[in-house]
C-alpha cells in the first residue's frame, strides 16, 4: 500500500527498492509519533465537520489499539507497505473501512512525515538532555570530592600553574551547560507544528492548526505553510549541530582521560575492569573505553555537514532528497546517548592520584604564586615578574606551595552550587513536563 498510488499504476520493483531505501526500517522509530499526529489531526477534522463524532470515536479507539501495539513492540510495517504512514492508515481501513480512509483529509504525506519528525526529534533531544544531566551530576560530584587534590595545569602542553581535579571535573560540568543551551535551540526548532501545511501550500479546508498545535504540546506553529516544509532539514541540522557540540565536549574529556592515564602523566587510574590488555605486552592496561569514546564522538562532529551536503542546492518545496536525513539523524541519537552513558560510567569508577604536586618536578608551577607574594609585599608586578625570573635562572627560587586561591571559580571556590543551579535553570527552560502532559491527555481521552 502506498498513500500516493493510483489505480492501474505499477512501480518497477527495482525503482521501488531504490526509492524506499531504509525508510521502512527508519519509520519504525516514528510509529508512536505517527499515531499521536493522527489523533490530533482526527480530533481537529471532527471540529470542522470533516469527520462525524462517531467517526472520531472509532478512529481514536483504533489508534489507541495501534499505540498499545507499538508500546509492546508488536507493531510492524508489512511487506509491500511503503512507510509507517501507509501502515497506520492500512490498519485503520481494515478495521473501520471508509472511516479509516477519511483521516488523510486536509493532509499530505509531506506534513505527516514532518510532524512525525518534529515529535520524534523533540522527544529524542530531551532524552539527550536527561543523559547529559546524568553525566553533569557525576562531574560535579567528582569535582567536590576532589576539590583539594591538586593537578598540574598546562598551556601549550607545558606545565603552567596549579590546578585541581575539582577544577578539571568542574570545567567539563560547566561546559555541558553550554551544550544544553545548544540542545535547547534545536529543541525549540523541533517544537513547532507543521501540521496543516499539506504539501507545502496549505488546504482549502478550514483546518484549525492552532488546535493541533495545542493537542500535540507544541510551543507554536510554523505559520507560513511554505516555510513549514522548508523547516525539514533545518530542524535535523540544528539537532545534529547540538549533538556535535556535545560530542566535542565528551571527545575532549576522553582525550584528557587517555592522556592523564598514560604513565608519562600518571594523574588518574582506570580500574582493571575498564581497561584491556595487549596480546604481546603483559604490562599493558589500555584505556580503550576512552579511546572509543574519543573516536565515536569525533565522528559525530561531521554529522551537520552530512545534512548540509544533502540540502545543498535545493530550492523551496519538498524534495525526496530529504528522506535520507532520517538515516543521518536517527542513529546519531542512539550513538550520543550510548556515549553519554559510558562516559558517566567511566568517570564514576575513575580514581585520581593524590599529592601529585609534591614532586619537585612541579616546583615551577608555583612561580606565579611567588610573583604574587612579592606583589602583596609592595613590589610592582612587572618588577616582581623579573625578580622571579632571575631567581629561577640563578637557582635561588623556592616554590611557595601554600595556595590562596579564593575568587569565584578558582581552586578554593569552585562554585559548584552556582553551576548546579545554572544547569537546573537551563533544563527547566525546555518545559518538557507540559509536552508530556499534552501527549498523555491526547492518548488517554
Give the helix/strand layout.
Layout: H1 13-20, H2 23-27, H3 31-47, H4 53-71, H5 84-96, H6 98-101, H7 109-145, E1 150-155, E2 158-164, H8 165-190, E3 192-193, H9 209-215, E4 220-221, H10 225-261, E5 268-269, H11 288-300, H12 303-311, H13 325-349, E6 351-352, H14 367-376, H15 381-394, H16 416-428, H17 432-444
Parallel strand pairs: 3-4
Antiparallel strand pairs: 1-2, 5-6
Tally of strands: 6
Q: Please, how many domains? A: 3
What's the helix-strand series? HHHHHHHEEHEHEHEHHHEHHHH
Query: Which value, in Å, is the CA radius of gyration?
Result: 29 Å
Beta-strand level of the residues, as a percent range? under 5%
Q: Give the overall shape.
A: elongated
By CATH's scheme, which homologous superfamily of the largest domain applies?
Answer: Fumarase/aspartase (Central domain)
CATH topology (level 3) name of the largest domain: Fumarase C, Chain A, domain 2
CATH architecture of the largest domain: Up-down Bundle
The overall pLDDT, averaged over residues, is: 93
Please give the alpha-carbon distance between the first and last residues. 30 Å
What structural category characterises the helix and strand content? mainly alpha
Amino acid at each position: 500500500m502506498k498513500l500516493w498510488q493510483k489505480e492501474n499504476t505499477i512501480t518497477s520493483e527495482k525503482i521501488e527498492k531504490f526509492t524506499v531505501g531504509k525508510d521502512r526500517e527508519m519509520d519504525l522509530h516514528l510509529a508512536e509519533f505517527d499515531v499521536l499526529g493522527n489523533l490530533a489531526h482526527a480530533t481537529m477534522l471532527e471540529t470542522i465537520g470533516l469527520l462525524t463524532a462517531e467517526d472520531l470515536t472509532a478512529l481514536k479507539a483504533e489508534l489507541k489499539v495501534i499505540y498499545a501495539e507499538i508500546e509492546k513492540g508488536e507493531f510492524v510495517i508489512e511487506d509491500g507497505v511503503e512507510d509507517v504512514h501507509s501502515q497506520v492508515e492500512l490498519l485503520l481501513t481494515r478495521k473501520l473501512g471508509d472511516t479509516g480512509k477519511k483521516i488523510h483529509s486536509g493532509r499530505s504525506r509531506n506534513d505527516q512525515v514532518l510532524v512525525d519528525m518534529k515529535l520524534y526529534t523533540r522527544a529524542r533531544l530531551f532524552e539527550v538532555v536527561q543523559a547529559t544531566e546524568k553525566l553533569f551530576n557525576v562531574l560535579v560530584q567528582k569535582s567536590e570530592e576532589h576539590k583539594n587534590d591538586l593537578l598540574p595545569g598546562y598551556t601549550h602542553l607545558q606545565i603552567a600553574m596549579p590546578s585541581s581535579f575539582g577544577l578539571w571535573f568542574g570545567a567539563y560540568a560547566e561546559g555541558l551547560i553550554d551544550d544544553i543551551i545548544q540542545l535547547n535551540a534545536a529543541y525549540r526548532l523541533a517544537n513547532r507544528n507543521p501540521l496543516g501545511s499539506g504539501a507545502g501550500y496549505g488546504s482549502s479546508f478550514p483546518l484549525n492548526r492552532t488546535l493541533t498545535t495545542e493537542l500535540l504540546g507544541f510551543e507554536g506553529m510554523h505559520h507560513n505553510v511554505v516555510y513549514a516544509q522548508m523547516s525539514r532539514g533545518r530542524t535535523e541540522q540544528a539537532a545534529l549541530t547540538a549533538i556535535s557540540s556535545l560530542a566535542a565536549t565528551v571527545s575532549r574529556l576522553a582525550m584528557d582521560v587517555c592522556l592523564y592515564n598514560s604513565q608519562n602523566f600518571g594523574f588518574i587510574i582506570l580500574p582493571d575492569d575498564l581497561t584491556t590488555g595487549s596480546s604481546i605486552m603483559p604490562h599493558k592496561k589500555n584505556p580503550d573505553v576512552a579511546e572509543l569514546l574519543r573516536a565515536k564522538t569525533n565522528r559525530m562532529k561531521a554529522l551537520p555537514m552530512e545534512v548540509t551536503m544533502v540540502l545543498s542546492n535545493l530550492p523551496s518545496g519538498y524534495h525526496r532528497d530529504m528522506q535520507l536525513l532520517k538515516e543521518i539523524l536517527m542513529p546519531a541519537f542512539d550513538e550520543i546517548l550510548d556515549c553519554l552513558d559510558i562516559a558517566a560510567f567511566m568517570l564514576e569508577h575513575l580514581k585520581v592520584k593524590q599529592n601529585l604536586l609534591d614532586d619537585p618536578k612541579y616546583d615551577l608551577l608555583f612561580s606565579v604564586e611567588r610573583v604574587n607574594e612579592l606583589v602583596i609585599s609592595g613590589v610592582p608586578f612587572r618588577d616582581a615578574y623579573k625578580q622571579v625570573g632571575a631567581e629561577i635562572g640563578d637557582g635561588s627560587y623556592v616554590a611557595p606551595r601554600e595556595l590562596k586561591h579564593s575568587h569565584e571559580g578558582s581552586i578554593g571556590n569552585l562554585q559548584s552550587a552556582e553551576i548546579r543551579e545554572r544547569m537546573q535553570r537551563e533544563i527547566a527552560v525546555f518545559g518538557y513536563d507540559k509536552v508530556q502532559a499534552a501527549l498523555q491527555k491526547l492518548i488517554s481521552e
